[in-house]
Amino acid sequence: MKKLRLFPKTFLYCLCLITCILLIAFVLTYYLLPVKYQEYRDRELKKNAGSLVSELKDMQKHEMESYLLSSRIALGYGISLIDENGKTVVSKGIDISIMFDEKDDMAGTWMEANAAVKLKEYSVDFTTSDGRNFCLILLASMEPVEDAMRVILSVFPMVLVICIALSVGVSYLYTKDIYRKLYTVISELEQESSEVGRAEHEKLRVILMASHELKTPVTAVRGMVDGMLYQVGVYKDRTCYLQKCQEELERLSDMLKDLFNIAKTWKEESEKEKSEFFIDELVSQVVKPYQIIAETKGVLFELKRGSKSKVTLQKELLGKAISNVISNAVQYTDPGKRVTVLIKSDRLIIENECEPLQEEELAHVKEPFVRGAAELSKKNCRGDDGNGIGLYFVDQILSICRIPYHFLTYEKGMRFIMEFGTKNKQ
User: What's the helix, strand, coil split of the chain in %, to 5?
Assistant: First the structure.
């Protein structure tokens, strides 16, 4: 696989994205804080002024001063209470003297005061219960937000450095994780693609080999039929050669049947869904007919069960593979000898007593249409009637199910082992 060059690009992209988000958040805070703070102070001024006026309406003039100087609502504000004659009744925080009829001077005075000490003012006129008019003025300092803005600007370089450092760390970890997952996915896709390519190549190879193998019985039958038709030489004995034609046709039928099973297995590879089941239960179902066949042939058949093991696999396909192996073991074991099926927690072992294969034969035993090994199968349990396709069929199924297997010799004959392991176990 080509080396991926996405890591630096992805890292820089994430770093820039996180840094931009942090900077935008900082800028928004800097510009929105004064606006929101001013809105908050406006609401507070209006609310507190209304509360104070509602209390002052029912008071005498001499009571207003003591109330305004002691009220908790008035804490934190500059307060001025001016009567209808322009006389300041109460002044706390700032001494202001404004006449009601001097509107321009009053406005100018408040503008100068606001500009000098950065105050926010709110005034409200009200009439007491005895008919007197007053003006209540509340002043709120805007210095807290100004101080906050100065602090924000002073710490900005340090915050920026910290944010960039955090962005680098987070971007690196995130990019590394994404890169690892992406690399894994791409590796798996390439592996699957390679396996699919090998499988398609294998299918093509089998089809070509099958075409070649099928020519042999067809050519033989055609030659014998032509000889009998024209009564050439030995072919005048029609009874003898009709029997040979029948044998060749049966061989051809068996090969076509095996090829059909292989093609069906290829089709089922993408259609069969996995399911959970116990291995010992599946094997117990598969061996029942072969126990009867073994008893009829005089072959000893022994089934040994170990601990129960649940797996998640294509049950029907696996059953076909087990059936094929056991069938061959029974078919090619001589009377008086033994076939043993041993079920363990992580493996299935099938043994039959026969003449073992040689090492050079074992090297090609699972290849289709290998005549050298196939012709020996009748005495050593390969079990494909001379066309060399039996174990290839099993190999295809176990490859689909991803089950490792071993076909080995032992002191009494041949041993077939299927490994289920932890990957397929539940």
Answer: 60, 15, 25
Closest-CA residue to 277 (of 419, 411, 426): 426
The residue type at 38: Q
Question: How much of the chain, in percent, has pLDDT values that exceed 70?
Answer: 79
Q: Is residue 156 part of a domain?
A: no
Range of the domain at 117: 6-147
Residue 193 belongs to a domain:
no
On the 0-12 / 13-18 / 19+ scale of CB atoms within 10 A, 141 is: middle
- Residue finishing a domain among 116, 147, 178: 147
The overall pTM is greater than 0.70: no
Pick from 124, 147, 170: which residue ends a domain? 147
The label of the residue with tokens 């034969």 reads: 361
**CA–CA separation, 368 vs 414, rounded Å?**
19
For residue 101, pLDDT beyond 60: no
**Which CATH number does the domain housing residue 34 bear?**
3.30.450.160
Cβ count near 163 (within 10 Å): 17
239 within domain boundaries:
no
Chain position carrying tokens 């060749």:
248
| Higher pLDDT, residue 273 or 413 | 413
Instruction: Give me Rg for the CA atoms of the chain.
Output: 49
Residue-wise pLDDT tens digits, 169-181: 888 888 888 878 8
List, for residues 347-401, the tens digit of each pLDDT value.
Answer: 899 999 988 888 877 777 777 765 443 343 444 444 444 445 667 778 878 887 8
Interacting residues of 240 by C-beta distance below 8 A, sequence separation 6+ = none
Look at residue 102 and tell me if it is in a domain.
Answer: yes
Tokens 């450092």 sit on residue: 165
Amino acid making up residue 195: E
Nearest alpha-carbon partner for 323 in 395, 251, 398, 394: 394
Distances (CA, A) of 272 to 268, 312, 331, 420: 6, 12, 29, 18
CA 20 to each of CA 9, 17, 174, 208, 380: distance values in angstroms, whole numbers, following the listed order: 16, 5, 17, 62, 75
Q: Which of 89-103, 160-174, 192-206, 287-301 has the lowest mean pLDDT?
A: 89-103
Q: What is the CATH number of the domain that holds 381?
A: 3.30.565.10
Total domains, the chain: 2
